[in-house]
Write a structure and sequence with these properties.
Structural class: alpha+beta
Strand content: 5-15%
CATH topology of the largest domain: Creatine Amidinohydrolase
Helix content: 40-55%
Oligomer: single chain
CATH class of the largest domain: Alpha Beta
């Protein structure tokens, strides 16, 4: 939790941006795993955390914009709770810790909302993503779950996105703490990367690091020899000499800020010549994005420049052919990189995406593409100082996609399918880091950078790998 004044100032700014009505912002409740008393790890709603700071379940924050009043509402725990879980601060104490004068029981939520409705004042809420919150909104506002996303407050969404997109110095410091944990996770994975170790074992070891040093992993670990599968989950397969191990993993701190990095490591300790050729293209694309990123630049343009460079590299290997610009506009490169260059980062590893990608990654100037591959670009709008974004180019050889495009003749004028066929069992390579957009450029977050330059990876493996 940050200092009290941080939350007071955030709520005051939100009131100015929204301008009128009542802002209804529920926190998350406990989520049962397989019974009423066996819960998943509690994760508070990020926007609730941003404005109200408290991590306890079953709390609701209300901001009465018209009357300049803030409320934190929820029921105090009873003796049964104390016996099983221990004492916690009262709701009044929790409210005071974040500069809120008004607190009360959960039942007061209905009173405040009904009064606002009777007075014909707008009740603003964000798009809900949990079913229990959808039910609560239906009970309070008589809006069925299927209609709630459409009826969520555009004014509130835009205000939250505007505020949460720009990271304060304290927030950047917290993200760097997550990056430090991520560094330990990834370098441990690299040390463990050798034949005879399972993907699952490596995943478990690095998840343990996140749990011991932070709150949890920021998303389920991707640890796989099948790097061509974008979200490949770890299996009990033993990793094999000659293969590549792709690890996409991040940490979340106890104050709920995230990191997100990807490294691709040769299981044998050294890249083969073919692996070096593909890896070098991805490495160059990663560094090109870092070089180009700065305030005022459309991230869409950075994505496209990276794809141009990728096409040129693949043409040099005789995997692509033809005019680079025509291939780019046709989307031929998406056979190899069917995702976007990066996304926003912060309290959510894909920051604020529950609010709607059109608001978070795009705006009135630029909207998402419908073209295969580019349609998966989660961020296209102009960068601003204080943004934190991921830089994550990759090249993948997806057998089913190769087969489909070959049979359909998709972009056949730009793709040398005869040579591409030789890479069917290659897998995939991705390199990902978290970038802070500074006043005149960008920098990789984290005091220590996880090795990613080809020579540095091989050198690290030679000196640090567990035997």
């Amino acid at each position: 939790m940050f200092d009290k004044q941080t939350y007071i100032e955030r709520r005051a700014t939100l009131k100015k941006l929204v301008g009128h009505g009542v802002i209804f912002m529920p926190g998350n409740n406990e989520s049962p795993a397989n019974g009423p008393y066996n819960y998943y790890h509690h994760r508070q709603d990020s926007s609730f955390l941003y404005y109200f700071g408290q991590n306890r379940d079953r709390l609701v924050g209300i901001i009465d914009v018209d009357n300049d009043q803030d409320f934190l509402l929820g029921d105090d725990i009873d003796m049964d709770d104390i016996i099983w879980f221990g004492s916690v601060d009262s709701v009044k104490e929790l409210a005071s810790q974040v500069g809120i004068e008004h607190s009360g029981p959960f039942s007061q939520v209905q009173e405040i909302i009904l009064k606002a409705i009777e007075e014909d004042r707008k009740v603003h809420f964000l798009p809900p993503y949990r079913h229990d919150i959808q039910i609560l909104i239906q009970d309070l506002l008589d809006i069925r779950p299927a209609q709630q996303r459409a009826q969520a407050s555009t004014e509130l969404i835009k205000a939250v996105v505007a505020m949460r997109s720009i990271k304060s110095t304290a927030e950047v410091r917290e993200i760097e703490r997550a990056c430090a944990i991520g560094h330990k996770m990834h370098t441990t994975a690299m040390k463990l990367c050798s034949p005879g170790v399972t993907e699952h074992f490596i995943s478990g070891m690095i998840e343990g690091i996140a749990n011991s040093l932070g709150a949890m992993v920021s998303f389920p670990n991707i640890v796989t020899m099948h790097g061509e599968i974008m979200h490949g989950t770890p299996s009990d397969k033993y990793i094999e000499a000659g293969r590549l191990l792709l690890v996409d993993a991040g940490a979340e701190t106890n104050d709920n800020y995230c990191s997100d990095n990807t490294r691709t490591t040769p299981v044998s300790g050294k890249f083969t010549n073919r692996q070096k050729e593909i890896y070098t293209i991805v490495e160059e694309c990663h560094d090109l994005a870092l070089q180009l990123a700065k305030p005022g630049i459309l991230w869409y343009d950075v994505h496209m420049d990276v794809c141009r460079h990728m096409i040129e590299g693949l043409k040099a290997l005789d995997l692509m052919t033809g005019d680079t610009e025509e291939a780019l506009q046709a989307g031929a490169h998406a056979l190899f990189m069917p995702h976007g260059l990066g996304h926003m980062m912060g309290m959510d590893v894909h920051d604020m995406e529950s609010l709607g990608q059109n608001y978070v990654g795009f705006d009135d100037e630029i909207q998402p593409s419908s073209q295969f591959g580019t349609a998966s670009l989660r961020l296209g709008r102009r960068l601003q100082e204080g943004f934190v974004v991921t830089d994550e180019p990759g090249i993948y050889f997806i057998p089913a996609l190769i087969q489909q495009w070959k049979e359909n003749g998709t972009n056949a004028a730009f793709l040398n399918f005869r040579n591409i066929e030789k890479y069917r069992e290659f897998g995939g390579i991705r390199i990902e880091d978290d970038l802070l957009i500074t006043s005149n450029g960008a920098r990789i977050l984290g005091r220590d950078i996880i090795p990613y330059h080809l020579e540095d990876v091989e050198d690290f493996m030679a000196k640090n790998r567990y035997e």
